[in-house]
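In the previous chapter we treated chains in isolation. Here, by contrast, the input contains two separate entities that must be folded as one system, with a combined length of 1644 residues.
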Amino acid sequence: MESEQLFNRKGYYRNSYNSIASASSDEELLDGAGVVMDFHTSEDDNLLDGDATSPGSNYAMSNGGGVMSSTTHLLDFLEEPIPGVGTYDDFHTIDWVREKCKDRERHRKINAKKKESAWEFTKSLYDAWSGWLVVTLTGLASGALAGLIDIAADWLNDIKEGVCLNAMWFNHEQCCWGSNETTFAERDKCPQWKSWAGLILGQEEGPGSYIMNYFMYIYWALSFAFLAVLLVKVFAPYACGSGIPEIKTILSGFIIRGYLGKWTLLIKTVTLVLAVASGLSLGKEGPLVHVACCCGNIFSYLFPKYSKNEAKKREVLSAASAAGVSVAFGAPIGGVLFSLEEVSYYFPLKTLWRSFFAALVAAFVLRSINPFGNSRLVLFYVEYHTPWYLFELIPFILLGVFGGLWGAFFIKANIAWCRRRKSTRFGKYPILEVIFVAAITAVVAFPNPYTRQNTSELIKELFTDCGPLESSQLCQYRSQMNGSKAFVDASPNKPAGPGVYAAIWQLCLALIFKIIMTIFTFGLKVPAGLFIPSMAIGAIAGRIVGIAVEQLAYYHHDWLVFREWCEVGTDCITPGLYAMVGAAACLGGVTRMTVSLVVIVFELTGGLEYIVPLMAAVMTSKWVGDAFGREGIYESHIRLNGYPFLDAKEEFTHTTLAREVMRPRRSDPPLAVLTQDDLTVEELQGIINETSYNGFPVIVSKESQRLVGFALRRDITIAIENARRKQEGILLTSRVYFTQHAPTLPADSPRPLKLRSILDMSPFTVTDHTPMEIVVDIFRKLGLRQCLVTHNGRLLGIITKKDILRHMAQMANQDPDNIMFN
Amino acid sequence: MESEQLFNRKGYYRNSYNSIASASSDEELLDGAGVVMDFHTSEDDNLLDGDATSPGSNYAMSNGGGVMSSTTHLLDFLEEPIPGVGTYDDFHTIDWVREKCKDRERHRKINAKKKESAWEFTKSLYDAWSGWLVVTLTGLASGALAGLIDIAADWLNDIKEGVCLNAMWFNHEQCCWGSNETTFAERDKCPQWKSWAGLILGQEEGPGSYIMNYFMYIYWALSFAFLAVLLVKVFAPYACGSGIPEIKTILSGFIIRGYLGKWTLLIKTVTLVLAVASGLSLGKEGPLVHVACCCGNIFSYLFPKYSKNEAKKREVLSAASAAGVSVAFGAPIGGVLFSLEEVSYYFPLKTLWRSFFAALVAAFVLRSINPFGNSRLVLFYVEYHTPWYLFELIPFILLGVFGGLWGAFFIKANIAWCRRRKSTRFGKYPILEVIFVAAITAVVAFPNPYTRQNTSELIKELFTDCGPLESSQLCQYRSQMNGSKAFVDASPNKPAGPGVYAAIWQLCLALIFKIIMTIFTFGLKVPAGLFIPSMAIGAIAGRIVGIAVEQLAYYHHDWLVFREWCEVGTDCITPGLYAMVGAAACLGGVTRMTVSLVVIVFELTGGLEYIVPLMAAVMTSKWVGDAFGREGIYESHIRLNGYPFLDAKEEFTHTTLAREVMRPRRSDPPLAVLTQDDLTVEELQGIINETSYNGFPVIVSKESQRLVGFALRRDITIAIENARRKQEGILLTSRVYFTQHAPTLPADSPRPLKLRSILDMSPFTVTDHTPMEIVVDIFRKLGLRQCLVTHNGRLLGIITKKDILRHMAQMANQDPDNIMFN
């Protein structure tokens, strides 16, 4: 008993040193590129050298640590904590079961200790509260960063057009706040704000100043784009793109070191501002999710509960992504549902609650910063006051069809372009590519007011209904007011004036421009979100349809469909609502989100009233999109990059059996196995050197093939190394045994080596007749890395996650070699 | 090929006749009490007679049907569809894996057929759309029924007080709509509405008429209560209670026949109205979930996809419960989250989307019915206009503590009382009990205006802020207005008048009354929801605290905490907000809901503003409640009734191993197993007769103990029966074999019987060293019924869901024999 306590205190149990070990090596998680390894087919034979940490699957330690080792066998030969045990290599898949067992073990230990002293009790309280602390911190940081990005992007965006003479750091709107020009039409013009032409040439009007402004616009756009891509290229290559495909993969249990690190956070924040300001057809909403996840990852390092456990860390990341969407769209509930529906893999109820909390905290911080000066979280918050009518469902569904078509087209075109970029020399000059795209965008965008302005502002203008105070070109209807302004809210439908017709032409051009540029922009080496460009495309299409329906109703109010509810002089059609429905439909077509998208847009409008049009459009868009290909843009990019992502949404519907998928195949060499008590150290090392597998099943004997357990390559090498260093009498001819008691040996044989403690005695097994649909279900739901296949109690083969992904790709007639990591 | 097609058309494959068979027996699902059976320890040896359908676990059929049987072995001896195969017995647990496989098989079959003809294609379209159709129908029906119940309960409730002379079917409010009395104080008094005293005695005022009204109130309350309990007792015993514990259990994969049937629906709808009108301390919100689930279940019978598959049917039920909460609280998003957080077990994303749709449809139908005349879905929708201040978090958190204490106290007291009712002769007289409780409620409730009125109306009054138009006693502040009514919305804080003090006393009495009566009411044999009484208790406590803080701020506005933000003449404290926070806290304490509760209340207030107070209170309430016992009221009632519910929220934190939980225990007789090829029919029947297990592992031989598969008792008996009837030469001495090929037998032996087709060749196995936390995880996530335990490839024992539940009860120091069903 005495000695057991001693061991216990010094942390000689397997579990104890696991925790210590992982602490030291987890701190390196933020840097380092790491070696790409492959579980079952890796060519890398250097594993034995120990310079690469190998992925482990030893959840058996919870036997070993919890019950078995405390009563029977202690790890008598591994006397020092071994760095790297319990952590994973870069680009490897984690073992959810093991991670969860590790956490429960940690929890048990803290619970057992907490009555010992006040200090331990405090520590246990800290541990219990750390989940809430980390999501609070994440929410605070995400909200603050989102506010900062909003303000900075606004300011930098206006720099392209001019400068505030009073105070350089004011954007156009802030500059003119103090101005005397109070009419709405002129509110953007004030003497303090000088366009570049006004500043350099001294005159605001005329063709010369137009060209000057044009030139300065292009100059700034190119400068911002160049700076953004340079920073990304030099400091943090992971900062490019939207980040959501990678976050989905990471949340499903994959390790990409540095993807959520401090450098990525810093560079992504800065370059996001630059990229948005450069006028490229991209948004900041997707990257905000990445930024929030970086915050979550960084804060999780303050809490050992999260930093040392990859599964627990993913709970924080799920909450962080909810916070990210919450600040991106001002929709806390939508953010939680986005995290649940779109990005998360393992989403227990506790995470739901914490995600909600993080989303709320982030939203409140952003609202206190108030970046848009409208006490709303987003620029394009709207409130409509007129109801919709049943007949309008037809145009709404048409918008849904448009959204689905756009989504399918965009995904196909963008993936084709990205594949071309990957495979040809286009991809070798990312800086040039960005500058080229930015130059075209700027040159084409400037002449058209709808493409020149900030995309968020464009969306806001398209969403907003025409009231009497609205000065936009889109609202230049021919006045029919009889002098009375009784209904300020509900301005009746009117015939369109020349301004509206001009606006429609410009909007059509803007639509074509946005569609083309977005395809080439998403995938550039700058931070680039898809939400805003997609919404803009949908909003433009929607507004055009809305105005068309409105004019139709005005000129043909005697048609049957309009007669009942759309009299002359009533306000029956709201073109802004069409814009919103179109935006939702296009976003739905691209991302294939459903509930979360409707809830996000619902939170933007603040009324249950418009959920039915939204649902009709989003559902139509999803079905139309799915008809052309079931994958959303994020899944397509995951597949493009070959990440091992086992989608929980996709059903496996084939009738194959486990034996058809398992290795070894009929033509392969037999499975490399270890026998439990008749190998020597030399033979064992031989097997390890000859194969590249990351783990070996242990069987009773070659004759019986009965499965005993599973041992990881890395654990075996470490154990042998240690034993030869620390234990006397371990020679190359020493017998290795995994059993409880040493085998009976000849008298002159050297001291045997006991390796039972590194044996996972509860490997997952299925029979060879198990349908693959069940196997896939098990892998998904339990988060396995590998599973052994037996027949009548005899070991037959092994199935890894990669085998399953390859098999699924094969069944879907895709290239199975696309799956690159394990 | 010819014969295979023939077989195929006639449905001779195992899967085909399964579907046909289950069709015929599923129609019986709505009636019949069924025999309570126990998987592993049942004493019922009559199973062989075939008069009880036995639960099946033959998901192997998807091998058998999908790949194996279509290529190799046909079921050559089972020529007729056997009724009952593929269905479950009453009070038995379903096998999720099998059900899901069955559905995928069905889906594959439809997909394969759909190109054959236009009719098949139409059928496949119908199949694809049936999910949306069934949730639409469910939403429509739930919304309509909720509206009906609301209107009927309102009318019946007013009948207790008087009658409308113009039109009997008008309630008090509708009766007085046409009245000339337009002042708000007098809006309830109109000549058309006669109190009973006015009608019978001819005078409205005076002690005589008070006593007359009192008498009539009690008379009607008792009549309604008697009628309600009588209907429940005679026609549908399952209609009593809130139904949520049973729905949780059903959704987790348990069969309770008739619980969601048409009789339950009809009687529950009628008696719910009566129970609410009787004035008992109960609400209609919980039972509305039950009503919605009944609708979902009944409509699922229209669609073979759902009626024939217990797992798919539960998807509809999840959506239905979302619709139920949606109409109960007018909170579609809250309803979906309630379904996700509180009741559902298996909640794939498709269900999320459909739940949302069902919830929306139901909400829209209810709003078109407009039962409250305020175009809101609930009576107590409110909008506040004043912000809250940081200091107010202290009283909010105190309300949370109160809510947690109330929840813990209520659960303990209610469970103790229900246990006493179950175990003593109290439970023998449910009708008397209801009448007794109703009488006490009516007698005590009448004199106090706050208990006399409808609980929903009480909540509405407590939630509503005092505006200048408010006539309630709670708003009788001493006026300090200076004649100006500049701020209509924000009436400044004022000193309380005598009306407020009187109201506070009455509220205190009402609080005590509600607390006591609710404990005795929940569990009566009438439909009874908990939401409204809990919210009422919280709202009373909250309003009292709110008024106290308000007065404190008025009289001590120079205190440091008030000085900054609560000047005289400003409106800084909203007592209605306190009522709402208190209501949420109390409901949270009782149910331990978190996110869904906050979202439901958020949807009631229509503003993000008040989410932080709500969250603070709900979180506090949950933590305080959890300190006294982690179970909410629904889990407690599940445990009280001994349902086999494996809670996904509760973590299993013990360190036991599978071998400590599995049967047989050390002292038990050895596991009953079948050998694969050396039993005779007689020996097999002997094993079946001697044991009561519902299934038997099949092993290679007694010596090797290597596992081949798992065969269900029911399948074996049916197969033997059929073979002896249909196949020539099968005698009692015939050899039974489960292998692919017949064993070599002596020349004179009778024809052997091949039973491979009923063998599940992919049973789930774990090793004896597997920690129970992993086993519990597997059972939860995959929805298993049983799992075999092996050691080094040899079969060792079996773990059933019931074994796990017993073990968990044992580890929690509870009575393991409490778990009654399997």
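Chain B is about 55% helix and 5% strand. The radius of gyration of chain B is 31 Å. Compare these points with the single-chain example from earlier in the chapter.
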